[in-house]
Design goal:
By secondary structure, the protein is an alpha+beta fold. 34% of the residues lie in helices and 32% in strands.
């Protein structure tokens, strides 16, 4: 499936084992300083292993490609007992940020959530990651609460507004993200 942001047409596909090192590298580049400032944690080999273990065992990960180049990823999950899709992480390489791609990814996720009978998107963002906070607020997320250096945010999805605003998103059949990634982290 593809998303379009301005002149760019990017492909969303299930994460493969070959994507993992690029995803970890991108996350470290984007988030190491935020993690350090928020919780005083260094991006160590142990931290990286824990992140990777969670990445491949929790929810679904969509890799975002510009031709054959990894541009970003979206990691999310359907939470049992909740009426939402929780965004664990959405990362874009720096050269893809600020170009409308994140907005189009969230529009795709809204439609996916509605097709799965979910009414909300939710996430947790570090309180000192002001650029991300502003981005999510601009997309309609509101603060639910703060704690432990994070802001928990949620957005009620408006079915009518969502389905009329996704003209730049092309869909494959929505049978996606129903299994956990199956490769090993060893």
């Amino acid at each position: 499936m593809y998303i379009t942001a301005g002149p760019e047409r990017l492909k969303l596909s299930d994460m493969t084992e070959g994507d993992v090192s690029g995803i970890i590298s991108m996350t470290k580049e984007n988030m190491a300083h935020v993690i350090k400032a928020t919780w005083g944690l260094e991006w160590s080999a142990n931290f990286e292993k824990k992140y990777l273990d969670m990445l491949v065992s929790t929810g679904a990960v969509k890799s975002i490609y510009d031709d054959n180049k990894l541009a970003g990823y979206l990691w999310f999950e359907e939470r049992k007992g909740k009426n939402d899709i929780f965004i664990n992480s959405m990362q874009l390489k720096k050269e893809y940020q600020g170009r409308g791609i994140g907005t189009q990814i969230l529009k795709w996720l809204e439609v996916f959530a509605l097709d799965r009978k979910r009414q909300y998107l939710s996430l947790s963002v570090q309180v000192n990651n002001q650029r991300a906070v502003t981005f999510y607020q601009g997309f309609g997320f509101g603060e639910v609460y703060r704690g432990q250096g994070s802001i928990y945010m949620s957005k009620k999805i408006n079915r009518d507004a969502t389905y009329t605003s996704v003209s730049t998103v092309e869909f494959a059949p929505i049978t996606l993200c129903t299994t956990v990634n199956s490769f090993s982290t060893v």
